[in-house]
């Protein structure tokens, strides 16, 4: 028990000791870490205090910032107010400028409209406008035309003269239907200030105050007639181009190669014509005829052979209906095309190809005159029978065309029928026109036969296909009635436009050459009258030349005036004139007097 007591006492002591140790430990804790226990409390208070101080400081700063922002805002509001004030001031100025500009534009537009309306109501050409230098300001269109007619058109020349070597060629305005285009020029002048809108019209009219405007009249003409005119002149030039051709002499086909020569440069000639008319001052002027060289066409042997070869045909006629069918010789070329081409490769003026002629059984001459019962037309010219050479040439050409029958629709060619004028064919030298002089030439005089034939054609009222007048007037016919021919250059052709064949009868005897046409008369035939008028004279000039055999002052050639002729065909029915038509306008050059130096 005592042990137990002792043990309990020990346990109690241990417990007390343990409790004391714990208390001691607590004490130690209390004594050893009082700051750690109190400091958090102190820091919390300090934090609260600092928070309160920061809050006060923040409020103070915010108040100051707010006051500062208020001051800045007040400053900004003041600057903004000043800025807006300046803008309002500028807007006011700009508004005033816009209003003034609008007023100005309205005023200008109003003035422009007023000005334009005034111009539109004005029916006169505007001031400052002229035509070909003639002032037409403040004139109506009709008044402007009348003034141009008076100042320019009435004084406009009628002839434009070209020179080439010793030749003179005249182109008349009537011949090419040429004139100045007055109407178009007046229309253009009148259109100024009327073509556009209000503003452009006003500008155009206002510009005339500073820059005057002149319109030049254009030239109107008939291009086909002008081309024909210069083509005709080309055929009358000396040494002109000769085209390849062919003819049959007996049983031989003769092909000529042709040669180059001068021809009128039509484009340049047109420019000269137009500029001359536009200049309105050409009456006493002479223009050099523009010329270019023309080469002959190549020989088309295939075409020639196809035209030459044919089968023979007998001539015959019928009475019901009355119709004549002429004979035709059959012709065959004796060589092939390739063989002939080899022959043509050699440069020559003429090539001869043999032909096989096949004769028909019956010819037109065998039919007799009963096949051509009516005389359709006839014409005669006189010649000097004492001139043997010339008479020989007339007879040869006449015999070639005598008895020839021209079928309806067929075209007769004088050169093809008569053939080339050569010594072999029997032609002689006689007077011809050449380079402005009368000289001897082979075949001289045969143009009298072609001219006689031409008049027979006119009186038969047949269609003339090709015809040219002589360079100079002839002695056997008046101007406008002749027809010149040059082999390979100039031909005379006519077409039988009747419904019945025509037989040509040609005789040369006793100083008279007569050509007649026989056929069949119809109720549609007219009485034909041919007249001619000389409308202009072209004076000749005098030339001094050196020529052997003539002493100084001797007259080598006596001059003669040239002229321009018009020929007309008048058709009558039972004595009443039915129609009158211009056949041709022909120019004949003056022949100069030539005096030896």
Short structural description:
With 597 residues, this protein is of the alpha+beta class. The chain contains 13 helices and 31 strands. Helix content is 38%, strand content 27%.
Please tell me the overall pLDDT.
82
The assembly state of the depicted protein chains is single chain
Radius of gyration: 59 Å
Order of strands in the sheet with the most strands? 8-9-16-15
Beta-strand portion reads 25-35%
Question: What is the domain total for the residues?
Answer: 3
Question: Got a strand count?
Answer: 31
- What is the tally of helical segments? 13
Low-confidence segments, given as residue ranges, are 1-45, 47-51
Instruction: Report on the biggest sheet.
Output: 4 strands, antiparallel
* Helix share, percent: 25-40%
Task: Assign the structural class, choosing from mainly alpha, mainly beta, alpha/beta, alpha+beta, or little secondary structure.
Answer: alpha+beta
What global shape is seen?
elongated
Distance between the termini: 206 Å
